[in-house]
Amino acid sequence: MNKRLLVKLIKEHENTINRMYNTAHNEPSKELQIKSWKSFHKTFDGLAFPGGLERGLRLIKQKDPATIDAAITYLEVDPYFFKSGYIMQNIARLLKKIDLTKEQVARIHDLLINSLNRSRRKEYALLAKKIATQEFCQRLTSLVNNADDPKISRRAQFMLNIIRN
To answer: Among 73, 74, 110, 145, which residue has the least CB neighbours within 10 Å?
Structure first.
């Protein structure tokens, strides 16, 4: 699947999960809530990651190139829904164990820099440690010293500390 379509799919699934979650959470009766939650949990795996979450994680562990690229795209999109943070942490943890191509490393460097706009993610910092280059560390150092937002500066420093220790 090309990247543009994959991004669209991830965003559509993010919207569907959020809609289903909100519906289940706000059903007026206990009976409807139970029915909605069952539906939510039945479809969650298939929506949480392209091709299914369990299957995707298994294929990443097996070092499937297409799934690794899909996982990096997933992290780039940074979907926000029930348990998405845990999913992204798991993906980052698995990617640390894989020999990545230069292109994949460059994509991850960019998404790690972009992730500094959000809260610190230790798994992202540990992934950064595995794939850090001198250029990447220079980018982080520049953010530590020059970022307009002090939160970004602190998060970049956190990532640098993990990389250096």
So the answer is: 145
Two tokens at 103? 């292109």
Q: Are 27 and 36 in contact (CB under 8 A)?
A: yes
Alpha carbons 3 and 100: distance in angstroms, whole number: 18
Q: Are residues 78 and 116 in the same domain?
A: no
Q: How far apart are CA 75 and CA 63, in angstroms?
A: 17
**HEC profile for 64-94?**
CHHHHHHHHHHHHHCCCCCCHHHHHHHHHHH
Q: Same domain for 89 and 121?
A: no
- Using CA atoms, how far apart are residues 110 and 163, in angstroms rounded to an integer? 16
Q: pTM of whole model > 0.85?
A: yes
Return d(Cα 29, Cα 51) in angstroms, integer: 33
What pLDDT, in 10s, does the model give residues 91-108?
999 999 999 999 999 999
Determine the average pLDDT of the residues in 6-18. Answer: 98
**Distance from C-alpha of 42 to C-alpha of 38, rounded to nearest angstrom:** 6
In this structure, are 83 and 144 located in the same domain? Answer: no
Residue 57 near residue 38 (C-beta atoms within 8 A): no
Same domain, 7 and 80: yes
